[in-house]
Amino acid sequence: MNFNISEDKRLKREDLRNVAIIAHVDHGKTTLVDEMLKQGGIYRENQATEERVMDSNAIERERGITILAKNTAVHYNGVKINIVDTPGHADFGGEVERILKMVNGVILLVDAAEGPMPQTRFVLKKALELNHRVIVVVNKIDRPDARLDEVGDEVLELLLELNATDEQLDSPMLWCSGRAGTASYSPYEAGTDLRPLFDTILDYIPAPEGEIDAPLQLLVSSIDYNDYVGRIGIGRIERGTIRQNQEVMICNFHDKDKAPKKTKIVSISQIDGLRRVPVTEAKMGDIICFSGAEDISIGDTITSTDCAEPLEFVKVSEPTMEMTFSVNDSPFAGKEGKFVTSRQLRERLYKELLKDVSLRVSDGETTDCFKVAGRGEMHLSILIENMRREGYELCVSTPRVLYKEIDGKLCEPVERVDIDVPNEYCGPVMEKLGARKGELVNMNPSSHGTRTRIEYLIPTRCLFGYRSEFLTDTRGEGIINSVFDSYAPYKGEITRRFTGSLVASEAGESTSYGVFNAQDRGIMFISNQCPVYEGMIVGENPKQGDIAVNVCKEKHLTAVRSKGADEALRLVPAKIMSLEEAIEFIADDELIEVTPKSIRLRKRILSNDMRYKLAGKLKKEGK
């Protein structure tokens, strides 16, 4: 191997580079990694390849977003380049934060048309805090609405805003098309391949540096799981060498009370392309996967037995909202799912904590419910979707923000919202955000003059339920992105929902006649021949307040004949809600029943009589 030995016994691994690709959602990270793998010699010439090969998770492929950070590696000019593909969505920012401890530099991708977005600022800020070197890549330069010169200036302005060092301000900038697999040093010269990007990585990203003969130190940045070998730790060796069957200690910098624990490394593998290659030893700078340490967690340090010196782990940002997960107690409980008890639900939620550093789980007021806190609606909805596909049945409540008391004042999380809309829809969008206590920060027309970019600061709770409304207001042409900004003083009460629910008054199977009579009251969520129970929400009332409807009502036959007796009943197609839409829709007194086959909306109190009595009692008490 090619090592440089300096006077202080520290070694430089010139045969290795560790780099992460960071960007806002949908700026082309995974597509660029595809081309880097192709041009890095990972595939045979005649090998069939698929798009976005790093998005291996079923939900990732369905939604077209990266959820989990993943490692790969390519070889270029005798140097192994370890690449970490990271999520771009703000809700999965915790994945990016922890992965940055594994690398020596980052490639910041910026869309040539959209420019720096809220999550671009977030991930770049985290990289600059760790003093990483940054290669700026302006991607999608072949877009017809690309703004090459302006975007370059916007990135420099962002670096200045984030107090970048002089060296970071002089970061190299490349112009690239991830789909075509080309990169160039100038926006006006067409590239032929990704060689300029590979060369810049070798020249600008520092090689890992440390002591190979010193006692072992390995920081665990990620956790994987395999049914055959159990928990697999993934991390970079900061110092020393690790060998197969070596006895090591597990310790944690942030948990001083926890005594170091002895364990044995059973197997070691390094990532090469899309495979994990078994090795017998690995040295300082290598990113490895290891098994055998069953009690390992993210943030732990693996050290040699004679020198247990833990490494500091990055402080991951705290969650800003929570939901209550509870056992499914509806009349249909246990009919579709495999795991339905509180013990199984508890085990699954606490197991998720082992690999998701930005999630918090605590026991609720009763033994049947658990409080789950995360970074956003999508963060928690992906967890619910995964559990649903694994065979779990559960009920989830409406999201609530987590308040903090700062200097004696009640403060709430505020988000920075970036909106890109056609000019004609600016009015309705600004009107709605103003009513939701949004504060206008910036407003700029696009270079083509047909769209407007608006920036708002708005309380997180005021955004609940707005995204679907936004798409309706902009006829599906608007783009909305948000990222947590800060905590600010509480801005007062707000009406979250201006509509009510149509609630089933009887249990049974819905009939064409019952649904036909109910559909005049509002938008229906079910069609005919659908099993329902009392208290289940079957539609949306356009006005505030709930209406009980009987969708199981049958038409009684009589001996009297009339002109319209045998007319066909025309049913309006039902609105089938996705999990995210259901989370946005429900009110505080409602729940979502999630099973492997169905997503149903229901009232917390199923009995209509009980609900009316409670409403009357509260009205009497003046609440």
SSE blueprint:
Blueprint: E1 3-5, E2 11-13, E3 16-23, H1 29-39, H2 58-63, E4 70-76, E5 79-85, H3 93-99, E6 105-111, H4 118-129, E7 133-139, H5 148-161, H6 166-169, E8 173-177, E9 182-184, H7 195-204, E10 209-210, E11 217-226, E12 230-239, E13 241-243, E14 247-251, E15 261-264, E16 267-272, E17 275-279, E18 281-283, E19 287-291, E20 301-304, E21 321-326, H8 342-352, E22 360-363, E23 369-374, H9 377-389, E24 394-396, E25 400-401, E26 404-406, E27 409-422, H10 426-435, E28 439-445, E29 451-459, H11 460-463, H12 466-473, E30 479-489, E31 500-504, E32 508-509, H13 512-518, E33 523-524, E34 531-532, E35 536-541, E36 547-549, H14 579-585, E37 590-594, E38 599-603, H15 608-620
Parallel strand pairs: 3-5, 3-6, 6-7, 7-8, 31-36
Antiparallel strand pairs: 1-2, 2-10, 4-5, 8-9, 11-12, 11-20, 12-19, 13-18, 14-15, 14-20, 16-17, 16-19, 21-23, 21-24, 21-25, 22-23, 24-37, 26-27, 27-29, 27-30, 28-29, 31-35, 32-34, 33-35, 35-38, 37-38
What distance lies between the first and last C-alpha atoms, to the nearest angstrom? 74 Å
CA-based shape: globular
| Overall pLDDT score | 83
**Low-pLDDT segments, ≥5 res:** 1-7
Bin the strand percentage: 25-35%
Q: Roughly what percent helix?
A: 10-25%
Radius of gyration: 28 Å
Number of strand segments: 38
Structure annotation, total helices = 15
The biggest sheet, with number of strands, parallel, antiparallel or mixed sense and barrel status, is: 11 strands, mixed
Q: Output the structural class.
A: alpha+beta
